[in-house]
Design goal:
The complex is a heterodimer of chains A (95) and B (477). Chain A is mostly beta strands. Chain A is built from one helix and eight strands, in the order ββαββββββ. Chain A has a five-stranded mixed beta sheet with strand order 2-1-7-5-6, covered by helices on one side. Chain A has a three-stranded mixed beta sheet with strand order 4-3-8, with no helix packed on it. Chain B has 477 residues and is of the alpha/beta class. The chains are: A mainly beta (95), B alpha/beta (477). Chain B: Keywords: Oxidoreductase.
């Protein structure tokens, strides 16, 4: 297992975001002043963190090209490419 | 790797403990100490659950019962009969001939753990009531705000309104104020004076009351207003919260006419008590009941046994009562599940002491539920176009029309007609509110059956088709 540096950056929609080691993608995005990183499937409304503990699936985001990551659970890693998720991303969930 | 044990047709574990919060940690430590081969499973990266959520190197300054957590964590890490599976998300528990198989995914890879008994210690999450604007980014659950602060070191916003009901609002607001955020107010929808009617329960739980008084004094120090019979009835903004409407409530939680006022804030933290995670007892056929706080809970006996064979339940899943009750119930479950699997005897005085403490904590919990009821006047805060189901974007009007126009008489039918609770969260967030809306639209109070209709989930966590198709036995390591 490699140890992440204490502080590093990843990108969100092309812009650099500072993160601390061990921090979730959602926490780093909120600390950077961002509020939302997904548009809903039906009405295209913005969503970000709601429950913060993996229950509600509101904070879904695309990381390194893969959609449907719960930003509140996934730890940020140096060099990650995080992008706003449009709708369901592409559906690979069984339920 | 082949071992002699892997070849035996027996479960690798005597006991699988599902959830590593206060109840699960306590259960696992008690079970291993009684000689049971135990596995402790949690979706989180480290033990502690929601209550003891922490960061690596956390000094525990913002936690209650931290020394108790450290002791349980130490004992659980050190015991040779106790294995850990962190980062394992449980999606199904299956009854087998030998006992149970717990199916999890870890980094998208499927795993299966076999055990003779299971202890369900899956905890709870914030109960939510919908209101206009609650889907705008910047409205968080109170638990999310607490998790961001305690688990990540990030205040959720700069100017924060804390609203809802229950004692949990106090530590959330206090933590934010101490972290330097401006808490524009704590808006408690209830009027928690019913507590005085339970002098015995209060006396037995003096430390908890002192805790509450400590929070209030911290809030005063930071000049945070604490208002009762008041709550946030709407959030405003388009892409992010820019303000909220706060109003006075009557005793049934209807808005007092003329009392609404705008407040300036960028964040709203809301919680109306807790919803226990009950999909596993439901999957295993345990009898459920509607508890004093209106939550669906698993029924247990004095040994923490659910009504389904070999299933023990501890902590919030059998009744919301806080971390101290959870630790006691976990210990009882661990001891009794061990006795059932390996016959290890327990000192009678220890059991008597645990049962006495459980009774005291339960009477305290019952008093709290009575002090913080959720009357159904909140339904009058909703417009027809207020979102109820956040996942499927179903409005209150659509839910009500499923009753008035389509003749649905229970939440399960409404779910099929209008899709609330059919999205990714599977009704975890909107289940309680939908059950209440449907019951009221049918002119009755919600029942355990109504709640069950929104809480039954054959698959507890979304998973990829690949994970579902693949095998994955984690018992021969």
């Amino acid at each position: 297992m490699t140890t992440a540096p204490l502080s590093f950056t990843f990108t969100f929609d092309g812009e650099p975001v500072q993160a601390q080691s061990g921090q979730s993608v959602a926490a780093a995005l909120i600390a950077s002043g961002r509020r939302s990183w997904r548009h809903t499937r039906v009405e295209g409304r913005p969503r970000g963190v709601f429950c913060g503990i993996g229950v509600c699936f509101d904070c879904l985001v695309t990381i390194n090209g893969r959609p449907n990551h719960r930003a509140c659970l996934v730890e940020a890693r140096p060099g990650d490419t995080v992008t706003t998720q449009e709708g369901a991303g592409h559906d690979d969930l069984a339920c | 790797m082949t071992t002699s044990r892997a070849e035996q047709p027996v479960a690798r574990y005597d006991i699988a403990v599902l959830g590593a919060g206060p109840a699960g940690l306590s259960a696992a430590v008690a079970a291993a100490a009684q000689g049971s081969r135990t596995v402790l499973i949690d979706a989180g990266a480290r033990p502690g659950g929601q209550y003891w959520r922490h960061r690596d190197g956390d000094d525990g300054a913002r936690h209650h019962g931290w020394s108790q957590f450290r002791r349980l964590q130490r004992e659980s890490a050190a015991h040779h009969l106790l294995d850990h599976r962190f980062g394992h998300s449980i999606w199904h528990v299956e009854r087998t001939e030998e006992g149970f198989t717990t199916h999890t995914t870890c980094d998208d890879a499927p795993r299966a753990l076999r055990s003779r008994t299971v202890i369900v210690a899956t905890g709870a999450y914030d109960r939510q009531l919908p209101f206009p604007g609650w889907t705008i980014p910047g409205v968080f659950t109170a638990g999310a705000v607490q998790a961001l602060l305690k688990g990540q070191g990030v205040p959720a916003g700069k100017r924060i309104a804390v609203a809802g009901t229950g004692p949990f609002l106090l530590p959330v607001a206090t933590g934010l104020a101490e972290a330097g955020a401006t808490v524009v107010g704590v808006f408690e929808a209830g009027l928690p004076t019913a507590f005085a009617r339970h002098p015995l329960a209060a006396l037995r739980s003096l430390p908890k009351l002192a805790e509450g008084a400590g929070y209030l004094s911290t809030l005063r120090k930071h000049r945070v207003p604490y208002r009762t019979r008041t709550t946030v009835i709407a959030a405003h903004g388009t892409d992010a919260v820019t303000g909220a409407t706060v109003a006075r409530l009557d005793d049934r939680w209807r808005i007092v006419p003329g009392s609404a006022r705008q407040i300036d804030c960028d964040t709203v933290a809301v919680g109306y008590g807790f919803t226990p995670q009950t999909e596993i007892p439901l999957q295993l056929g345990c009898e459920m009941a509607r508890d004093a706080d209106g939550s669906l809970v698993a029924r247990v006996d004095s040994r923490q046994r659910g009504t389904a064979d070999g299933v023990y339940v501890a902590g919030e899943a059998c009744g919301v009562g806080g971390s101290q009750l959870a630790v006691i119930e976990g210990e009882l479950a661990g001891l009794h599940a061990s006795y059932a699997t390996n016959g290890s005897l327990v000192d009678r005085r220890r059991l008597t002491r645990l049962l006495r403490r459980r009774a005291a904590q339960r009477s305290f919990a019952a008093a709290m539920h009575q002090a913080y009821p959720v009357p159904d006047g909140w339904q009058s805060w909703l417009d027809e176009d207020t979102t109820v189901c956040r996942c499927e974007e179903v409005t209150a009007g659509t839910v009500r029309r499923a009753v008035s126009d389509l003749g649905a008489t229970d939440p399960r039918a409404v779910k099929l007609y209008a899709r609330p609770g059919m999205g990714l969260c599977q009704g975890r967030v909107c289940g309680y509110a939908t059950a209440c809306l449907v019951a009221r639209a049918n002119g009755r109070q919600p029942t355990a059956d109504d709640l069950r209709g929104m809480a039954a989930r054959p698959v507890a966590q979304p998973l990829t088709l690949g994970a579902l198709a693949a095998g994955g036995d984690d018992n021969s390591l």
